[in-house]
Amino acid sequence: MDGRKCLKWFTYGCVLAGAVGCNRNNVQPSPFGQMPNTNGAAATLPTPSSGKSMWGGGGSSAAPTVPVEVTPAVSNKPASADALVAISDVRLDAAFDEKTVPGSKEGLLDLAREGYQKALKQEPKNKNAMLGIARFYAKIGEKERAIEAYKKYLTLYPNDANVAHEIAITHARWKDWTGACAWCDFTLKIDPENRNVKKTNGFCLARAGKWDEAFAMLCQIMPEAQARHNLAGLLDHMGQADASKMQLQLAVKADPNYAPARDFLAELDQPRTATADPNGLRQAGEFQPAP
């Protein structure tokens, strides 16, 4: 071989070897860009089945790997009705939270309403969405819309005593005692033995001035002394101190060992000071005035 041919062959061989070595140690970017990999691991180039390296030579050379960054796919699926309701519930609570930034209440209320309405558009019979919009209107004082929404719910789910009771309590919050009693009666037609509804009914009857009916209702779920003690608390809360004392006296007569009535009566017999809490013992027992 002549010297020029030998030098040419040597130079070509060195360049080729250098190129192969460079490719093994410094993998160049794929001309197709990043390849998707649903497993999140690095994408591996395939190894020929012959066992030989794709670069030539023996089969001992491992195929190079190309690290691929996997970007999570963004779903365009809309939020479910229940998810929309949950978000709206948070916004509604935030609107009435004392810690909420001033001036943001109306915006939060609008977002809550829109969320409930969007949920209802997706699923018109969704229980959470139907109750969400009803509670929304009740909370902002739009009584007619609230009752209309509640009635739509009960039309579809007529045996839901808990919701019927909720409507009664909503009327009590509005201080609509007649309406509250009517809804208690409606609820008791669904669940005649519901003690919690009877208690609500007894207090609302008392607030409506129907004391005898209130007493009879409370006696269905508690002893006479306890019922009179609760009525005494209501009467005193309404400023009827003499009538309250009479109920307490009757309570002690019915059960001389009923300590709450005895203590309440003793407290009422003491002179009231200007700094005395008018809602102290006079709201003892189970009585809690509607907010």
Q: Which CATH architecture of the domain at 79-158? A: Alpha Horseshoe
The CATH topology of the domain at 79-158 is Serine Threonine Protein Phosphatase 5, Tetratricopeptide repeat
In which order are the strands of the major sheet placed? Answer: 1-2
Helix content: 55-70%
Specify the overall morphology. elongated
Write structural notes for this entry.
- The protein is an all-alpha fold and 291 residues long.
- The protein has a domain at 79-158: Tetratricopeptide repeat domain (Serine Threonine Protein Phosphatase 5, Tetratricopeptide repeat).
- It has 12 helices and 2 strands, in the order αββααααααααααα.
- It has helices at 3-25, 81-95, 105-122, 127-139, 143-156, 161-173, 177-190, 195-207, 211-218, 224-237, 241-254, 259-269, and strands spanning 43-44, 65-66.
- The protein has a two-stranded antiparallel ribbon.
- Pfam families: TPR_19 (PF14559), TPR_8 (PF13181).
Summarize the structure.
With 291 residues, the chain is mainly α. It has 12 helices and 2 strands.
Topology:
Blueprint: H1 3-25, E1 43-44, E2 65-66, H2 81-95, H3 105-122, H4 127-139, H5 143-156, H6 161-173, H7 177-190, H8 195-207, H9 211-218, H10 224-237, H11 241-254, H12 259-269
Antiparallel strand pairs: 1-2
Can you tag this structure with a few keywords?
291 residues; 2 strands; two-stranded antiparallel sheet; disordered N terminus; Serine Threonine Protein Phosphatase 5, Tetratricopeptide repeat; mainly alpha
